What we know:
Blueprint: H1 18-27, H2 42-63, E1 71-75, H3 97-111, H4 119-129, H5 142-153, E2 160-162, H6 167-181, E3 185-188, E4 196-205, E5 208-216, E6 234-238, H7 239-246, E7 263-265, E8 286-287, H8 302-315, H9 322-328, E9 332-333, E10 337-342, E11 348-359, E12 362-370, E13 376-381, E14 386-387, H10 393-401, E15 408-416, E16 433-440, E17 445-452, E18 458-460
Parallel strand pairs: 5-8
Antiparallel strand pairs: 1-4, 2-7, 3-4, 4-5, 5-6, 6-13, 9-11, 10-11, 11-12, 12-13, 12-14, 15-16, 16-17, 17-18
Helix pairs in contact: 1-2, 2-8, 3-4, 3-5, 4-5
Amino acid sequence: MTWRSLSYYPFPRTWSHPIPRVVSCVKTAMTECLPSSTSRHEEQLMHLAKLIVAISLAAPVLSSAPALANVVVYTANYPPTSAASEINGSLGGNTSRSLVAAGLMGAKFFGDVNVHGMEPVVLQHCAGRSHPNSTWPEQCDFKGLVEALGEVFDQNWLNIAYGQNEQHRAIQALVSGLKYYHSPAIVPLYGHVDHWGTVYQIEMNGNELSKLNFFDSGPGDQSDAAGDSYFDGIRTASGQTWRKMYYQVLGGVGPFDPFRNKFLISYDPPKHVMDEGKGLPRPTFIPVPLPGILEPGKKMDVHIAEERVWDAIFLAGIDDDPITWAALEKGMAGPAWEVHGRTPSGDAWDYFLVPILAYDGAISAMVQLSAADGAVEQIHAPSRLLPFAGLSEHEARARATATLMADEMLEGGRLTWDPQLHDAHCNSPLVPYYHFEVTSTLGEPRGGLFVALDDGIVRGIKVQLSRMP
């Protein structure tokens, strides 16, 4: 299918909640719902008709979603104004530059200080303030970074570490920082010592943490020491996805390092506050999924994912986030893919991916939906358009077969994603791959191949996975 470049999406940006408007359209004339800036193509009319029917059928379910009136967004004092606000370290794996860059974004988003060209200054202060004989890259550790930000920018960042069974307390600290002090949070991503990020916005529904926006502070064209690429642009994740995917205990440091196997977080409260939430109520904040689109008794499939991804996006309130919405609003939903993946802990993780196509072969965003109910699990809005091949299993198998020896054959071929792969390209659930086992015609195992969904390149598996996809 060839996709035309249309500045069209199902509901104009000014409609904060689609259902009342759609009901109004049904009562009057369907043509009133078409954005005035677009031509009235038959394809658009048919697409809109499908949406109206789908939403009318789902209305009872959507009405039971968490009340929108209870949703509150907490943002850093000086949040980013575009994806260009991202700060990346000058180097990647086995360095502390991602840590320093996360700190620079934290300082800027909290106090609007000038951080341009400050990486070497903060790095020097960090190394001087870190634990003696630190095993961290460039001898710049978490303690050193926090103290360096205080010295260089006259801010009051806290050094907070919780045990490996206290993730809930670390998440409570993250929420407290943004909710009470409008402070961004500096955190490691994936539990890697050389891979950090900055959370600048959260969404709460009562005591439920439903959504986070954050930047990865590593250089987008490099990977960390574990082989996971740094990603460019803004990530939006549900509270549940943040908990199980991105926020892990720290590894990659010496056995006696004080931060080993700890959940780390730093934020900046007022100077008279010595620990998180002191003197304030301390409720329990629970990471939760975003509201789903699927009515009870129904099952998600690729057709529902493609046709109703905009429902999920609006239910998640993404249209209220101008930076992420800018990457979505002028695109069109492409064909969806079902992925049978794994979480970092090894649990099964099934989901659907829907590319938002700027034009044929290029995406402006990628949306991940839950296989259970179609809720948004995460969105990546890169700072630039990314190529997207979108290979079918048949095409992937043909490419993998072309690399085989005469006495070899392929087994498997399911679209999957597993963090154990540690591939620099397929570093995220948003970049899944077709996994094939290679055997001889006599059944002798000869390794494996995987073909990435987005670029179609055949790669060999460099590690022996302890679990099969």
